[in-house]
Amino acid sequence: MSALAVGRLDVTLLGRRVLGDVDLAVPSGSWVTLVGPNGAGKSTLLKAVAGAVEHAGSIGLDEVSLDGMRSRERARQVAFVPQEPTRPDGMNVVDYVLLGRTPYVPYFAVESASDVAVVEELLDTLELRELADRPVTSLSGGEFQRAVLARALAQQAPLLLLDEPTSSLDLGHAQQVLELVDELRVDRGLTVVSALHDLTTAGQFADRLVLLVDGEVVAEGPVREVLTEKLISAHYGAAVRVVHDADGGVVVVPVRERTARLTKRTDGA
Ligand SMILES: Nc1ncnc2c1ncn2[C@@H]1O[C@H](COP(=O)(O)OP(=O)(O)OP(=O)(O)O)[C@@H](O)[C@H]1O
Fold first, then answer.
1. Is the N end or the C end of the chain the one with fewer CB atoms within 10 Å?
2. What positions does the domain ABC transporter occupy (predicted)?
3. ipTM score here?
């Protein structure tokens, strides 16, 4: 199990500060989800932890700086599912998932039988078996998203970063994928940091939520403390009702301001 500690993270892109002084503590084996409106900095934060964007501040895993690591070592520690992964031309699904084993393959060697076994298992788990020989460029959005997750899980890193991992998945596959991640978290002690737009889903799977707005953390804590009508309407400009169900879950329901709409229509008639 590995704990993530981000301290005073600052990112400036094209001369604009998009993350300012962000602190984030993710206990070992827990799941923290970043929420916030478009452009808040969720992806940038995940990319910084993955080592994909220049930043100031510290990023440590079990008190070891990730920034001090070589990329191969970092890839054994951190697996990242980006929001918009590229699809390599001419590569089939099995080879794409095998890329996740690259940090374990010695230089000038090929994948071992155990690397192949890890990939084979993931092809089954993520229902990719029948697509194994298909070029990744030919997959539907949801099929490719499952392949991207398989590639990340093949890395067997203790920290998993997921940027909108279910955006292209239907409801069933979305639940299945998030349940799988949660199972791995419980069984193997994975630490998970994700960014999700669907606030109800975010609340179902995370231990804690972090609300980012304009590159700063404006609220952080257990789901019930962050998913409030007040915070959501203030920072998303959205009209919602927050319902607490009997199991302790939080459901965020968008509502239309019906009275105003009806009045307008009547006026116009
Ligand atoms: N490569 C880049 N160059 C310049 N600005 C960028 C770059 N990448 C992101 N930004 C800007 O940084 C800010 C944060 O973007 P980011 O993608 O992290 O937000 P987000 O919270 O993930 O948004 P979304 O919910 O829309 O995916 C945005 O204003 C965005 O325009």
1. C
2. 4-239
3. 0.98
